Amino acid sequence: MIKTKKIPKATITRLSMYYRQLELLEFDGYRMVSSEKLAWLCQINPAQVRKDLGYFGEFGVRGVGYDVIDLQAQIKKILSLNRDWNFGIAGMGNMGCAIFLHRDLALRGFKCVAAFDNALDRIGMPLPGGMRIRDIRELKTAIRDLNIEIGVITTPASEAQGVADLFMEGHVNAILNFAPARINAPDCCLVENMDFTITMDVLTYQLRQKIAA
Amino acid sequence: MIKTKKIPKATITRLSMYYRQLELLEFDGYRMVSSEKLAWLCQINPAQVRKDLGYFGEFGVRGVGYDVIDLQAQIKKILSLNRDWNFGIAGMGNMGCAIFLHRDLALRGFKCVAAFDNALDRIGMPLPGGMRIRDIRELKTAIRDLNIEIGVITTPASEAQGVADLFMEGHVNAILNFAPARINAPDCCLVENMDFTITMDVLTYQLRQKIAA
Predict the structure, then answer these.
(1) Alpha carbons B180 and A26: distance in angstroms, whole number
(2) Smallest Cβ distance to B80: which of A16, A43, A208?
């Protein structure tokens, strides 16, 4: 029995981390793993691992640990990793191309089905794999025709909201935003911001605190 | 009087977000902003804005709000944004190049002073601005010579830990990791992970919950 209500987002994030570690453990030939070891690999505490997994049932055996392959399958089911997801990228500058070419996304079932830009010198440009960069004005039609479920935004800050609005008008309700700008979206649309300039600020704040200590 | 102890990391992240919104407000000609408006722009609640700023003193005027320019200056001081930080990038594939070419980092005082790789066909390659890609084996010398304070990792997953170890051996105590792999580091080293494959997992989990609801 899988309870799916009120799971903290941080738990979901950690499940995804556990999954990656379990893959590596399987690759290294491990069949079982303790919560202590899994916790150590993820740099968190073992009680947290047990609590996170506890939301979804009883997976481990006391004193023995978790079956590496079985737990992978369970997490895969919980996180819906057992299906592919289609995404589209808006903004084919350096960051857009880097995401497009990222091998790990495809390996994990995230399939880029279209890439868009508004610059005349980019529209029509071929991409590896036979795709071409589309005109951003085709976004809404493409969402429908290619069943785009996730929008990835890699435009400059000034264009992020406009592109997000286009995705939302096309009923894409999940956006991964790399632009250094906040996106206003209604509650029905999920937005995750990956603004690493903010992360740099946080890192240097902490660094200075350390130096001062 | 600025209190600097026990400030939650989430508060620091939001200060960085407020700062960006204040820049935009200034650009748009605003001189004052209420906590309600600032909160709305950042998509959080106003009480949170007041609480975050309250850690560092009294900045606003009740019923009037915050001075857009003054609050920027205060946050800049709190976050140590009033100095430049040197960083080095290890792994000059697509993601490494995208970070290297990212305009917002330089604008915010984050200066890439060196880029490294271990591939023979990349070492020595010229980069815009007159720099060349260095051999990863030069990392430790370069850290000292160029005063690298932050290490950015954009290698494949399998090489992330090795590169992190090199940064740490060179006494770089702040790492921004884009590789889809966890990095083991002692407490003296700050690590921020920007693994967007994990964020995609979280996004699709939430999306499926919404569809099912």
Answers:
(1) 17
(2) A208
Q: Which of A63, A78, A93 is the last residue of a domain?
A: A78
Q: How far is B89 from chain A (nearest CA, A)?
A: 13
CATH of the domain at A116: 3.40.50.720
Best mutation target among B202, B209, B210 (most A Cβ atoms within 10 Å) is B202
Amino acid in the structure at residue B35? S
A203 occurs within a structural domain:
no
CA of A60, closest CA in chain B: separation in Å? 23
Residues B128 and B184 in one domain: yes
Complex ipTM: 0.90
Q: What are the CB-based long-range contacts (under 8 Å, 24+) for B79-84?
A: B79/A201, B79/A204, B79/A205, B79/B12, B79/B15, B79/B16, B79/B19, B80/A204, B80/A205, B80/A208, B81/A201, B81/B19, B81/B108, B81/B109, B83/B109, B84/B109, B84/B110, B84/B111
Same domain, yes or no: B141 and B157: yes
Interface contact A202, partner B, CB < 8 A: yes
Q: Are residues A126 and A143 in the same domain?
A: yes
Please check whether residues A20 and A42 belong to one and the same domain: yes
Q: How many domains does chain A have?
A: 2
Nearest-angstrom CA–CA distance, B191 and B91: 17
The boundaries of the domain holding residue B46 are 9-78
Per-residue pLDDT of chain A in tens (213 residues, 90 and over written 9): 454 557 888 999 999 999 999 999 999 999 999 999 999 998 889 999 999 999 998 888 888 899 999 999 999 999 988 889 999 999 999 999 999 999 889 889 999 999 999 999 999 999 998 999 999 999 999 999 999 999 999 999 899 999 999 999 999 999 999 998 889 899 889 999 999 999 999 999 999 888 887
